[in-house]
Amino acid sequence: MTATPATRAPDPPAPAVRRRRGPTRADLGRPLLGALGILALLALWEAVPRLGVVSDRYLPPATDVLAALGVRATTPGFWTAVGDTLAGWALGLAIAFAAAVVLGFTLGALPRVRAYTTSTVDFLRPIPSVALIPLAVLLYGTDIRSTLLLVVYACFWLIYIQVLYGVADVDPVAEQTARSYGLGRLARVRHVVWPTTLPYLMTGVRLAAAVALILSITAQLIIGSPGIGREIAVAQSSGAVESVYALIVATGALGVVINTGVRVLERRVLRWHTSVRGEATA
Amino acid sequence: MNHQGEHGTMLKVTGLQKVYRGGATEVEAVRDLTFDLAEGELVCLVGPSGCGKTTLLKCIAGLMPPTSGTVELAGRPVTAPPPDMAVVFQEYGRSLFAWMSVRANVELPLKEKKLGKARRAELVAESLEAVGLTAFADAYPWQLSGGMQQRVAIARAIAYEPQVLLMDEPFAAVDAQTRADLEDLIRAIWRRMGVTVLFVTHDIDEAVYLGERVLVLSSSPTVVQDDITVDLPAERDQLTTRQDERFTELRARVYAEIQQAKNSAKGAPENPADGAGTGAARASTAVH
Lengths: 282, 288
Hints:
By secondary structure, chain A is mostly helical. Chain A contains eleven helices and no strands.
C-alpha cells in the first residue's frame, strides 16, 4: 500500500461483487433426505392399518387418504373451503399487521404513553384467543367476522410486541448520523427506524402467519364459519374417516405453503440483515 | 487565542461547559472550552482518553445542547445540526445504513437537502471517485472492509458539501496501514476542497501529522491546555514527514503536554476517572 489513496485501486480483491455461490453437496443432500423421510412415514402409515396394528376405522391407510384427497380436490366445494380459510387467514393477518405497526410506531415514539399502557398490554396479551370463541359467536354468529376476531386478536399482540422491541432498538450512532445530516422526524422514521424494526417485524409476521392459520381452522371447526375447519367437522359427523384425514393433510400442506412463503418474503425483505446475508467480510 | 489569519472565523466555541446529570451524581465532562477555527483550517484535537472529546464534538455538531457556553458556525449560533456541517463518526459500521447500498448511503442526505436528481448523481460520483470507491457504488457497506466502509462515510460527508467537517476519532478502529492511507486521503480532500476540518483523535502522531494546528485538551473536567501550530510543510508524506526533525519535536511537545494533563489529573482527587489515560496515550505513540 503506497501513496495517494485517492487514485489508488480499492482495497482487497472485491468481495463485494461476489455472486451468490451455487448449491453445495450438503445443500442438495438435505431436500433429498427430507423426501426420503416423508416416504418412510407414508410407508409406515400404509403398513400400520394394513397389518391390522390399528383398525382402519381409526386410521385408514395412506393411499386411501391420499385417494380421498385427490377426489376432494376435484370438487369446487373443496377449493371454496380453501379459499375461505385463506381469506380469513390473510384478512386477519393484514388487519393485525396494520394495527400493530401503526400503534407500535406511535407508542414507540411516545415512551410515556407506552409506559402507561404496558400493564394493560401485559394483561391482555396472554389471554388465549380461543377463550374469545363464545364472545365471537355472540357478536358475529358463524360469519367470517368470528374467525377474523380470533385471528386478529392473537396476531396483533405477536406483531405489536415485536414492533415495540424493534422501535426501541434503533442504534444511537445511526440516529445521530441521520440527525447530523438534517433528516427530520419523518425521514428518520422512514430511513432509520423502519429498517431497524423490519427484522423484528418479520419475526412477528412469521409467528403470526402460523398462528393465524391455526386460529382460522379452529374458528371454522368450532364455530362453524365456512372453511376447511368446518369441512373437517362435517366429515367427522358423517363418519367419513378418510375425508377427515384427507382434510387434515390439506391443512398441513397449507401450513407448509404459508411458512415457505413467509420465509421467502423474509429473505427478500431482509437481504441486508445479518440473519440473511451470510458472512460479511471483515 | 487568535488564529483567524487572513480568513474569517468559521467555527467559534466560547466557554463551552457540559455537565451530565444522572440522579444525584453530576459529572462535569467539559469545564470551559474556548477556541476557534479559521475558515479552511485543519485542526486536530487531542487529549487523554476520557477527556470529553466526544462530548465536545456532539455539542459542536448540534446533537447535544451544552450546559453553558456557545458554538457559532460562520457567525450563526448552533442549536441544532447545521446544514453546512458534516460529521464522520468512529463507528462507521453503525453510522452507515446496512439496508442501503453505498450509493444510497451517500445520496440520502442529498435527497433530504432537496437537490435535483442530476446534481445528486454528480455529487455521489465525485465523492466516491475522491475516496476511490467508484466500483463499489452498488455494494452494501457490510460487504466492504472496515477501511473501505470508513471511506464510504467520508464520501457521504464530502458529498454533503459542508463548510465544516467534524471527525470523531474516525480511524481508531482500522488497522495501521489503512489508517495511514486514510490520513493521506483526508489531507488530500482538505487541500482540494478547502473545507474547515476539526479532527478529534487520541493519537498524538496522527494529530501532528494531519493538523495545521493541534489543540491539546486537559483531563476531565476539560479545558484547552495548549494550542500548538504545526509548522510542517503542507505536502506531507508518511515516511519523510514522520522522520522530520520538526515532526519529532512537535510530537514530543504534545506528548509532554498530555503527560502533564494526566499528572495534574492524578493530583486532583475529584477526577478519578482518568487513570486509564496514561496507558492509552503511551500505546498510541508506540504504534508508529
